[in-house]
Please model this.
Amino acid sequence: MGFWDTVRALIFGENEGISPCTFPLPPETVCPVHGVDLRVGKVWIEYGLYCFSDDFVEAQSARFPWANSRVMGGCIIRHGVPGRVDVKYCPECRESEKAYWREQQDR
Ligand SMILES: [Zn+2]
Model:
């Protein structure tokens, strides 16, 4: 199923065929960028559709792949999941992400 099929399904409620999103914690234990142990913590689920720039996506994979400071609600809103879920994250990545946003503001 393509991205727009998913979006359409979300908007029009035709999501019977979409399996509920789950958040299994990934097997990784160490951040590949910072070499520190990943932690587990709760983050808020954010709803709505996001459109991140290519620049952000590039920076994210190179500098803070494990920031995980938010979770996109999208397809789980209809499945009664509470507002916060556990994710794995790297504290250094979160600092990197904050630095990235500061850089964007300084432009
Ligand atoms: Zn990291």
Observations:
- The radius of gyration is 15 Å.
- The chain has three helices and three strands.
- The longest strand covers residues 39-46.
- The pocket of zinc ion is lined by residues 31, 33-34, 66, 90, 92-93 (CB under 6 Å).
